[in-house]
Request: fold
Amino acid sequence: MDFAKLTTQRGKDMPEIPWNVHPMPQLRRERYQILNGAWDFAAWEKTQVPPAFPQKITVPFPPEARLSGIDGHFPEGYSLFYRRNFTLPANWPKGRVLLHIGAADQYAEIYVNQQHIGDHLGGYESFCFDITQALQPENTLLIRCTDDLNDRTQPYGKQVLPKKRGGMWYTPVSGIWQSVWLEWVPENYVNRLDISVTQTQATVTVTPALSGTVTLDSGEEFPLVDGVAEIRPEQIHLWSPEAPYLYRFTLTAGEDSFRSYFALRTLEVKEFSGIPRLCLNGKPYFFHGLLDQGYWPEGLFTPPAPESFADDILAMKRLGFNTLRKHIKVEPEQFYYDCDRLGMIVFQDMVNNGDYSFFRDTALPTVGMQKRKDKNLHKHEATRQAFLAGMASTVNQLKNHPCICYWTIFNEGWGQFDSDSVYPILRALDSSRFIDTTSGWFRREKTDVDSRHIYFTPWSSLKPSDKPLVLSEFGGYACSMAGHIFNKEKAYGYRTCTDPEKLNRDLERLYYEKVIPAISRGLCAAIYTQVSDVEDEINGLLTYDRRVCKADEATMAAIAKAIEEAYRKLL
Reply:
C-alpha cells in the first residue's frame, strides 16, 4: 500500500546536526557535545560487528522514519549497528566524560574504541555511561541495538509489526530515537537532582550529598548543605497554565555547576458542596485537555525539530486547552520543558506492555462490560516486573517537571495486573501528584480518581462518585482533509464529520450538551481525542502534517470560556 509522504513545515529543511539543543534542560552544564547527524549504519541477523557499514543513518531518527535516511523496518531481532568517530573539544579540562543516550528501542550495547562500556534494556528512558577510561585522542563509538515486537515483555506502546499496522496501531520504531551526546563533568559531580515543592518553598536535593550554593536568577542565594537546599523565594509566584512562572537557578557544588529551574505549585483533592474536586494551588481547577500521541509523519517517535513540541503546545493553547494527556509514550525532556515554560499541564501515561485483546480490552468494555478483577490477570512475572521497572524509570526521569500533574498507570485494561498493589508502588515513588490507576475501565479500589472513557457508552454513566470524576478519553471525531491524508484507503475515528464546519458544530454540541452539564455531577477533567491525526487515525484537531487546524479558534475559545464559567458557578 502506498502511503502519502506527508511532511511538517519544520521537516522541510533539516540541519546537518538535527536536534542540536541541550537534551536536559533541568540539569544543564556548559560543556556538552551533541553527536547527532550522520552515522555509519548496518543491519543484519548476526550479533557480531559486521564487516562493512553500507548505509548512513541520521541520528536521532529511528530507521523506520524518512528523516533517518533508511525509511524501513528490519526483521525482528536483527542487530542494528551504529558507528561514528568523535574527538573531544579541545577546551574540556581534566575530569570525567559521560555518554548520554536519550532513548533506544529497546536493548542497546555500547562500545568505545572496542571496549564494552555497558548495556541498557528499555526503549523509553534515557541512560548514561562514564566512558572516561576508554577514551583516546581519536575515538570510535559503536552502538548495537536490538528490538523484537514479537516479545511483548518490554513496554512497547502503540507499536505493532508493519503488516499489522492500522487503526489505533502505528508504524513501529527501533534503535536510537533520541539524542546521543557527551557531557564533561568534574571528578565529583551531581548525578541526580530531586526537587519537591510547596506553595512557598522548594527543596532541592542532589546525589551525592555535596555542599555548595543555589543562586536564583533574582540574586537570592541559599546554602546547599550535605546535598539539600531549602529555597524560600522572597517573591511568591505560583505556577499554572495561565501564569507559568519558573524560578531559574544555578547550583554550584565544588567544581560542578549547572543551570536548572523549579516552579511552586500544589495538587490536592478537596470537597466542595459535597463533591470531590481536583485542585491546583488550593483551588478547584478544570483540566480541559486533549490526548497527545506524539507521532510525526517524517520522524515517527521523533519530531523533526525540538521546536515542533512548542508548535503543538501553542496551537492547543490557542484553542483554549490547558492539558495534554501524553498517551502511552515518554517524550524527550524538551517536550516537558516546553510545557513547563509555556504553561501546559501534562497527564503522563505509563507505557503499556503485555498482551492486548481487542475483544476483552476494548469491544466488551466499550459497550458497558467494565467490571473485571485483575489480581490474576497477566500473571507472567517477567512482564509484570518490566512494567514496574518502566514505571519507576518514567517517574524518576520526569518528576521534577512542574507541568506533570497526573500519572496514569494502566490504560483500558491493556496489560493490567493487580492494580491495587501497583498504586502504592507509584505513590511511594511520587507522593505529590494525582494517580489514575485504571484509565477507562476495570476499576478497582486504589486510585485518586474515577476515570472513564466514553466513545459509544451513554453519558449517563458519568455519575457522582466518592472520587473526582475524570473523563480521560472521549470524542475522537474523524474529519478527512484532502491533501493531508496518510492513508487514502482507510480512515479511523469514532464518528465521521464530512468537513471542518460539521466538525466544529459537532464539537459545540458535544461540549455544551454533554461535557459542561457533567460538571455539576463532579466532572473535573475532560480529555478529547486528540491533538493531531496519526497515520490512519483522522480524529485530530490538527492534520498529521500539522499544516491545517480543523478546529475554529473562536469556537473552541468560547467553549473553554463556557467551561470555566460553569465550573466557577458551581464552586
User: Anything to note?
Assistant: The domain at 267-570 is CATH 3.20.20.80 (TIM Barrel).
